[in-house]
Fold each of these.
Amino acid sequence: MTATPVSLKLSAMFGPYPNTAALRTGQVSSPLIAFDFAEVKVANTLFKSVVREQKFDLSELAILTYLQARVYGKPYILLPATILGRSQHHTIFYNAERGALAPQDLEGRRVGVRAYTQTTGTWVRGILAEDYGVDCKRVRWITYEDPHLAEYHDPPWVERAPSGKQLAQMLLEGELDAAILGDVSPDPRLKPLIPDAQDAARRWAETHGGVPINHMAVMRTEIVKSRPDVVREVFRLLRESKEMAPAKDRDAIRFGVEANRRSLEIIIEYALAQQLIPRRFTVDELFDDTTRSLGA
């Protein structure tokens, strides 16, 4: 007689996205798992608590933060489930009122970014180096927050902005030459640094196997090792929740190792070149036997 699997309660943290809505509201569920979801509006505000305090059993996590968490032995294993992905070319801006600026002009200039370890910043620097020939170590990177991992220390070409200063305001006032601001410019004077950013992003996706990954799911190592049935069920629920999102919100949300392999290979190379990690990981070592087989 087969024993009934024991149900498990998981503390969990996912942002309020179209692809996580059905999971967070219980529209998709499982008798095997009860979720205790954290209240959160912007997921990255809790990433420090994931890697410094191991606060959640299951969480989304920025992929660069996860790579650094592996370096420092944090007890989480990656699930091949993208939670957030997007193009990145449109996220770096300059103040057009202060004159024209091109990507090739950045060396020796001051460029703001929330944190040097920010995943969006990692993607943007990689794109600038690969496609526009920018030596990003010759750019003065101005930051506003500590790394998520307390063990990591920024390299010497990174500076901290004066206390009380704000990223967009420094760009508007001419204290920065460019800044990585995210999806939307907060002021009409600010224009994307990369010309024809949408077309450039489309071409990049065509040649690089899809849009960049921002966040993926991670699970506490001891649960992955002891309850592979729960891991498989979480993966199923995340995928079902994704399928209930509008079609326009599903394109960048890839599931399975092979579907994410190329994007992971690229972010590993970018992170290594930018001295964010000390060695090159293989994609397969980011997973274990259970999570590697998900979606195969």
Note: The chain has two domains: 8-86+211-292, 89-207.
Amino acid sequence: MGRRGPLPKPPARQAGHRKPKPAAVLELVPAQPYPLPPVKLSAAATAAWKAYWRSDVARVASEVDLPVIGRLFVMYDQYEQAIEVVNKALVVKGSTGQIRVNPIADYAYKLAGQILRLEEELGLTPLSRQRLGIAVAEKYRSLDDLNRSLSTHDVEDNGEDPRLALA
């Protein structure tokens, strides 16, 4: 069980009268030019920034999300720099000459936790997208096609709409 409760049961194992909420379907719009990355990012972090803005998930982001997204990519850059230092020297001499773990390793560990939290908030992992209820539509399907396919599930095999029996 995670921090926010257990994962939902698969539809085949669910019991009760409640139906699962349908996922929000986002219509893909043509890619917009992406915003400039935060200053002084490494080449790898800049490439990741560009890849993010080319992805379908970025189409959900709005202008108010830019500071959080920028902070995430600055953290990516800082994490990579910290890991480079830790890879060179995992242990260092302490103040009294004892051997101890490099303090930058602790910093990298804390950064990794903050990065994961922001990734989950922004829907950058498959599970976080599912928990947020985001389903990015396939490029070739229109929103009308998806609505038609969802409405056909409400009609029984005999062609009658069960909702009409209630009227």
Note: Helices lie at 43-54, 66-88, 103-122, 126-132, 143-151.
